[in-house]
Amino acid sequence: MIEINQVGKSYFSRSGNVDAIGDVNIVIEKGEFVSIVGPSGCGKSTLLHIIAGFESATSGQINVDGRPVERGSVPAGLGYIFQKDTVLPWKRVRENIGLGLQFRGVAGEAREERINSLLRLADLEEFGDAFPHQLSGGMRRRVALLMTLACDPQILLLDEPFGALDTHMRTLLHKELMAIWREMHQTVVLVTHDLDEAITLSDRIIVLSRPPSRVLLDHRVEIPHPRDVFTIRDTEEFAEHFRTIWRVLGEEFRQGANNETKGDRL
C-alpha cells in the first residue's frame, strides 16, 4: 500500500544543509497498523508529510497504492489527523463531521445516515448538536477523527494525535481507534513518541535513528487482536516487546544525550 524507497530529506539553512532524513526504506502492506518512533528531530512527522504530499523528498520516492506521490497532490483515499484538532468551533459536531461529505457532493439522507453511523461508532450520538467548546478534549479528538473517517479513507496517517491528552483519555481513545480500525480495515501509519502507545496499537513498529535518520529496527508486534488496551501493559508479551524495542531506541536516546553533553562542554 505504501512503498518508501531510499527517501531522504535535507533542509537549507544559513549554516549549510541539514539532513533530517538520511536513507529510509519501508514497505507497509494493505490493512497494517504501523507506528514510527524515534528521537526528537529524526524526521518522523516530516516522513508523514512526504507520504501525504505536503512536502517533497530530497531524494528517493514514495508510492501509495502503486502511484508516485507528488508534492501538492494528496494521494487518493488518504486521510490525515494532525497533532492539533481541526474542528471548526462555529459549527456543531454533526456539521463538522459532514464537511468532507459536503465537499464531495454527498447530500440529504445519505449524508445524514453516514454522519449518524459515525456518531454511533464513536459513542457520540448524544453530542451531535453540540458545539466544540461544549466537548472535552477527548471528545474533540474523536470528532476530528470522524471528520477524516467520513470520506472512507483507505489510508490513515496519524501525527501524534493523542500526545496532549492525559493517560486516561488517551487509553479511551486507543480503544476507540482500535475498534474503528477493526471495522473499517484501513492502512494506518502512526507517528508517536510514546512506545507504550505504539506497542498497544501496532502490528509493526519502525524505529528511526537520530538524524540523518535511517531504519534501525522493523519490529513485528506478535500480540493477537482484539487487544484489551486497559490490561495489555500487564502482560509478559507486552513487556518483552518493550524490552526488545527499548534496547535499540534507548541506545539512540543515550547517544544523543552524550553528544549534547559533549557539545555543552565544548
In words, what does this structure look like?
- With 266 residues, the chain is α/β, with parallel strands linked by helices.
- The protein folds into two domains: 2-77 and 154-265, P-loop containing nucleotide triphosphate hydrolases (Rossmann fold); 87-152, no CATH class.
- Helix content is 38%, strand content 24%.
- A ten-stranded mixed sheet has the order 5-4-1-2-10-9-3-8-7-6, with helices on both faces.
- Strand 4 and strand 5 form a beta hairpin.
- The N and C termini lie far apart (47 Å).
Low-confidence stretches: none
CATH superfamily of the largest domain: P-loop containing nucleotide triphosphate hydrolases
Indicate the structural class.
alpha/beta
Range of strand content: 15-25%
Helix-strand string: EEEHEEEHHHHEHEHEEH
In the CATH scheme, what's the topology name of the largest domain? Rossmann fold
Q: What is the CATH-assigned architecture of the largest domain?
A: 3-Layer(aba) Sandwich
Question: Which key phrases capture this entry?
Answer:
alpha/beta, ten-stranded mixed beta sheet, Rossmann fold, 2 domains, 38% helix, 266 residues
